[in-house]
């Protein structure tokens, strides 16, 4: 049975509220899905401000409540994203409005792009599982977006701020993969940042 109804309009946030299983959801759009440990490429060069970022996050965490999505974005996600811009010189769009069709539309929390590469980050207060379902639909929307170039794979991440999980869409195979590995901030900040930097250069 189809989850996406032909006579209805859906936004990315409404997709999240459906609480649908990701494999069934992406199948409605003609994509396949699998969960596996992804061997994501990591940037090998120097990240000269990484330790300072980790120190700042560790310093402020004892004094900040992370009970709201806003505080998680401002304290944990935004610093990572702005450092990513520093290393890659990517363009950053927050709350970016995207409409591909009536079923693929809404706001992307963070869209980063360089000349040939796009990365999307979806922020959630909790519920990483259904947050990933929303991320999957956002990746499909980017795949079908007329501004998308020849990028073969599109990387995305869903994050609660302290926990990050990646998804990767292979465009030619119409195959979406969810990484079994999660990254915890600040402990896994270095591999997390190296994956994100590599995806944009």
Compact summary:
This protein is an alpha/beta fold and 201 residues long. The chain contains six helices and seven strands; from the N terminus they run ααβααβββαβββα.
Task: Give an overview in words.
This protein has 201 residues and is α/β, with parallel strands linked by helices. It has one domain: Alpha-Beta Complex (tt1808, chain A), CATH 3.90.1570. The protein is 36% helix and 28% strand. It contains 6 helices and 7 strands. It has helices at 12-18, 22-27, 50-60, 69-88, 128-144, 189-200; strands at 32-36, 91-101, 104-113, 118-123, 153-159, 163-170, 175-184. The protein has a 7-stranded mixed sheet with strand order 1-7-6-5-4-3-2, with helices on both faces. Strand 3 and strand 4 form a beta hairpin. Helix 3 runs antiparallel to helix 4 (69-88) and helix 4 (69-88) crosses helix 6 (189-200). The mean pLDDT is 94.
- Structural class comes to alpha/beta
Shape type: globular
Taken as a percent bin, the fraction of beta residues is: 25-35%
The CATH class label is: Alpha Beta
Low-confidence stretches: none
Major sheet description: 7 strands, mixed
Helix content estimate = 25-40%
Order of helices and strands: HHEHHEEEHEEEH
CATH architecture tag: Alpha-Beta Complex
Strand order of the largest sheet: 1-7-6-5-4-3-2
Count of individual helical segments: 6
Question: Overall mean pLDDT score?
Answer: 94
Distance between the terminal alpha carbons, to the nearest Å? 41 Å
């Amino acid at each position: 049975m189809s989850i996406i109804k032909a006579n209805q309009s859906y936004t990315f946030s409404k997709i999240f509220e459906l609480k649908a299983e990701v494999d069934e959801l992406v199948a409605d759009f003609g994509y396949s899905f699998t969960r596996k440990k992804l061997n994501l490429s990591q940037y090998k060069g120097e990240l000269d401000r990484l330790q300072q970022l980790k120190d700042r996050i560790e310093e402020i965490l004892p004094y900040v409540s992370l009970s709201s999505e806003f505080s998680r974005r401002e304290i944990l996600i935004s610093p990572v994203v702005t450092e990513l811009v520093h290393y890659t010189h990517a363009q950053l769009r927050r709350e970016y409005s995207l409409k591909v069709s009536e079923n693929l539309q809404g706001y992307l929390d963070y869209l980063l792009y360089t000349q040939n590469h796009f990365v999307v980050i979806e922020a959630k207060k909790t519920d990483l599982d259904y947050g990933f379902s929303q991320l999957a639909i956002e990746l499909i929307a980017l795949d079908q977006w007329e501004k998308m170039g020849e990028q073969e794979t599109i990387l995305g991440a869903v994050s609660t701020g302290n926990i990050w999980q990646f998804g990767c869409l292979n465009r030619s195979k119409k195959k979406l993969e969810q990484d079994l590995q999660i990254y915890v901030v600040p402990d896994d900040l270095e591999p997390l940042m190296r994956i994100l930097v590599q995806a944009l250069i």
